[in-house]
Specification:
With 295 residues, the protein is of the alpha+beta class. The chain folds into 2 domains: 189 residues, Endonuclease, Chain A; 68 residues, no CATH class. The protein is 38% helix and 26% strand. It has 9 helices and 15 strands. Strands 1-9-7-6-2-4-5-10-11 form a 9-stranded mixed beta sheet, sandwiched between helices. Strands 3-8 form a two-stranded parallel sheet. It has a two-stranded antiparallel ribbon with strand order 12-13. A hairpin with a 6-residue loop joins strand 14 and strand 15. The protein starts with a strand and ends with a helix.
Amino acid sequence: MAKFLTGNELNTELEKIFELADEQIHLISPYIKLHDRYISTFLTKKDNPKLEIIIVFGKNEADLSKSMKQDDFNFFKEFPNIQIRYEKRLHAKYYASESTAILTSMNLYSYSQDNNIEAGVMTKVTLLGNLANNLLTNVTGEDSFDNQAYSYFKRVIDQSDLLFHKTPRYDKGTLGTGLNKKYISSETKVDTLSDFFLNKQKTSSRKLQSKNNKINQEEFQKLQTNKIGYCIRTGESIPFNLDRPLSDKAFNSWSKYKDEDYKEKFCHYSGEKSNGETSFAKPIIKKNWNKSKEK
């Protein structure tokens, strides 16, 4: 029987799907960013290689990281039996286990769960429900709602692009029967997402470095502009510049003769009187020379 869900009840029932699943979990959502409450629930499933998790996300074909964050990928890739797939046209949201499914408006995204007005329809499959559905199918020739939904999203999964696939490996034991299989480890058979996120990191790092270099250069130029010096002839404040330690007016006057050793009145670094110790060639008095190197 279908049940309409909203608000906290929708979040609670979705969490129960993850909590009670033993065989399969299907997460179909354009955007994936796990809420903390779901992370805690999934962690209890991390040691169950028999639980197959299939994730399909979508949108943002030019930059997949806008639809699935690297932290969430790093979290999911540690599970022993998992597929992560991509479908660029995906807009629907569907979450299911072997016994329960929710068709909803809500992305598997923490912001959506905390802030948006969302709704969904939940169906549960039981032995009695299966028998009733079979009878209904035989009489009316129509399939049940949950079977139609499952079949539709199974096609979505099959037609999506496989980006990550990790499967469990078993030791079949001496009898070689399914019941006697012992889990050994898991093997990653497909992984294009790790390379994607690695390249994304490198690109972001280069952009950041380029931005920082630009900022550093701009700051350097700003500091250069803001460094204060003093005209060696008039003592007025001017930009600090050893190549031109004169104000515009004083420089025009000096340019008539261009005598670089002509004795001037002030220190270009400190503005104090130089008593003839400074000149165009030596605009800083000796006691200030070491200090002026920093400027």
